[in-house]
Amino acid sequence: MGFPEINGKTKVCGLFGFPVEHSFSPAMHNAAYGKLGLNWVYVPYAVHPDRLKQAVEGIRSLELAGVNVTVPHKQNILPLLDEIDPAARIIGAVNTVVNVRGKLHGYNTDGPGFIRSLETGANFSPRGKSALLLGAGGAARAVAAALALAGVNNLYITNRTAERAADLARDVSQACQVVVQVLPWGSELPEERVAAVDLVVQTTSIGMSPRADQSPEFPFAALNPGQLVCDLVYNPEKTLFLQQAAAQGAKILNGLGMLLYQGVLAFELWTGRSAPVEIMKETLLKQVSGEVER
Ligand code: ATR
Q1: How far is residue 23's CA from residue 88's CA, in Å, rounded to a whole number?
Q2: pLDDT per residue as tens digits for the range 169-189
Q3: Could you count the other beta carbons within 10 Å of the beta carbon of residue 95?
Q4: Contact 8/38 with Cβ under 8 angstroms?
Q5: pTM check: above 0.85
Q6: Are residues 83 and 34 in the same domain?
Q7: Residue bearing the CA closest to ligand 1, atom 13
Q8: Are residues 239 and 272 in the same domain?
């Protein structure tokens, strides 16, 4: 990998999480800097939850160019920042911090990353469409807000814990003036609604390796060609959920594109340059398929 030589002018970005060892972001961003010959470096920082405040202060005092933020800090970091992007405010989570001369701006590139992956990976534009989300956790919040901001007409949310789905529906409908409806989970999910939506997004962790034999209960027979079915899980590459959707003729997309484009958008926020998407994608694929020793 083409690391720049580290010297007095090197700009530093990083990842705040706990743990951070398994993140693909350092490899993806460092490959991008190498490709463009930027004197930048991206470093993972294991920030204990009790130390988040000090770590955020460290962004200012060490003049880091910015950081990505991951579990468990995405929500807790909001009150520690100077400005929050409106979309990140709706989502209630920040995954990217930009240090603008000591003022820390919080963004969420997960949602826009998902929208970009729909466009590039499936040629799908959400405007005027209807979408059904499975799940109401952090990932679902990012996707729901991004779809609402991207102009979906109707949004449906189903979640094992109905109360969480109702909270998300309320937050998104208040912020975006879009009609959001909660539907029952599992076997009670109305087939006619599943048949009528343009997009289905599986945002829960069900089916993720090593539990690749699991899938949410879902009326797969109601799916049809012409619909796009996404699973935010990317390991395995094709979850059981996606396999069952594909068997009905639906177009399918996994979560790798969202992971790639959240990184692409963070890179662009920090550097102000167009990201070298191909090398970032290549690096990510190598990481995911375990070709790179960690
Ligand atoms: P993330 O940030 O990855 O979205 P999260 O905030 O913990 O993680 O949310 C996990 C989501 O997966 C939730 O929608 C959760 O449903 P509950 O709100 O009912 O907990 C869902 N989920 C996880 N495991 C599940 C399972 N075995 N069956 C149904 N839903 C599950």
Answers
A1: 21
A2: 999 999 998 999 999 999 999
A3: 28
A4: no
A5: yes
A6: yes
A7: 137
A8: no
